[in-house]
Amino acid sequence: MTAASTRGLGLRLVIAFTLIATLCALAIGYYVSQARQQVGADYTALVTDVVRAQQDPAALRITLDSLEFSQDRIHLEQLHDLLGRIPRRIESIRMQLRRSELDPASYGGLLDELAQVESRLPALEAAVHAAQEGQGEPGDDEILALGMDVEEGLAWAYSELNELLHQASAEQRQLMERLTLALAVLLLLLLLAIGAVMRMLFHLHRQRETMRLQSRTDELTALGNRRWLRDAAEEAFERRRRHGTALSLMLLDLDHFKRINDAYGHPVGDAVLADFARVLQREVRRVDRVARMGGEEFAILMPDSHLADAEALAERIVRATRSMPLPGPAAEHRLTVSIGAVEAEEDNGFDHLYSRVDQRLYRAKTEGRDRIVSARDASTEASSSDAHAPDGDPGNTVCQ
Ligand SMILES: Nc1nc2c(ncn2[C@@H]2O[C@H](COP(=O)(O)OP(=O)(O)OP(=O)(O)O)[C@@H](O)[C@H]2O)c(=O)[nH]1
Questions:
Q1: Where are the domains of the chain?
Q2: Which of 16, 74, 205, 230 is 20 to 30 Å apart from 54, CA to CA?
Q3: How many A from CA of 256 to the centre of ligand 1?
Q4: Best substitution site from 261, 335, 371 to test ligand 1's pocket, by max atoms within 8 Å of Cβ?
């Protein structure tokens, strides 16, 4: 019963521990993956825009070179399209930067440079427009000079921005790695803490069960004690009430035990008590409950047993006690036992049954010891009480 309840608690603790650990792992894993996705997505968008924008200064340089060498008007058209695209790109990057988590101080210089580029665009557009209208050469020096300024400004700003994003994303990655490590350590600590608490609870429960068991066990003989027998009797009475099964009780007291103590010493007396306990356990069935009530007095509760069964067992015990070898210096001593036995035929509980069996034991003592006195029913005790000793010893046979 105790072992089963301990096992049950252990199983429940293991299930609770596994559940908590799984939930923690899922929650933290979900959080980390969410954080990673979020940060990754922010920088990916900005980096993509910057990579596209970096194509503008490259295209501008190629177009300006082509204009310088071939003077072809088609390059004026290309330049015109490019100048229409550059401000939109700058504005888009400016907006993305403001929305990003980057420190504004880190990209303030870039924005200034882009603003300067924007301020040069109208003059360049005007020169291109004039050349398109035939008011100048396509490879005009003014177009080339303004175009180179714009190209250099854009190339510098976008390459700085690219560098800044690389740095920010490297820092972010590092941060995420530290965060992941911290969460893993946290999870480990949490699991260890939960494990420790579980262990402690389990240990406390076992300790309580051990103490409970100890408070119901006789230290010398390892048998149950009076309290344990009372609990067992309550269960047996409950079974008797529900199923109408028989129930008998036997009280046993060693005869003249004081003489053993006096003659051979208390330790020998202890050894005799322990040996006698073993004899009792050997003689009873598995369902019988053997207890030491105190001193040299023992009791046997016999569920599903009628008085005849109790008497038969009592006779076996009387015989086994007489032939029980005593330890060391007491080897020559012959031990005997007096027994009272009753069967419960009323539902008056353990105390009543005990008082009846105690009376039988008292009679066994006063009528000469080394004998059994039994009673079939409380109401007929006076007439049906029977005092006798096992066969083969007529001197101790006393009948009513
Ligand atoms: N060695 C030992 N002796 C015990 C223990 N408990 C009680 N005793 C002794 O048991 C003896 C009981 O003595 P009594 O009550 O006079 O009973 P008795 O000598 O057996 O005589 P009857 O019961 O009348 O036959 C006492 O000497 C107690 O000291 C124990 O745990 N160990």
A1: 2-196, 226-396
A2: 74
A3: 7
A4: 261
Q: Is 345 a catalytic residue?
A: no
* CATH 1.20.120.660, applies to 2-196: yes
Residue 174, token pair as written in the block: 């590092």
* pLDDT averaged per 10 residues in sequence order, the chain, 400 residues: 61 73 74 62 78 93 90 88 94 89 89 95 91 74 92 95 87 78 79 83 90 92 96 94 94 97 95 97 97 97 96 97 92 95 88 95 96 69 49 38
Yes or no: say if 158 and 50 are a contact pair by the CB < 8 Å rule.
yes
Does this model's pTM top 0.90? no
Using a 6 Å cutoff on CB, does residue 275 contact ligand 1? no
ipTM field: 0.98
For 308, other C-beta atoms within 10 Å of its C-beta total: 13
- Phi-psi label, residue 39: left if phi above 0, alpha if psi -120 to 50, beta otherwise: alpha
Of the candidate CATH numbers 3.40.50.2000, 3.90.1150.10, 3.30.70.270, 3.20.20.300, the domain formed by 226-396 belongs to 3.30.70.270
357 C-alpha vs ligand 1 centroid, how far in Å?
20
For residue 273 and ligand 1, the question of a CB distance below 6 A is answered with yes
- Pocket residue to mutate for ligand 1, from 293, 296, 298, most atoms within 8 A of Cβ: 296
Between the alpha carbon of residue 303 and those of residues 76, 243, 280, the distances in Å are: 114, 12, 16
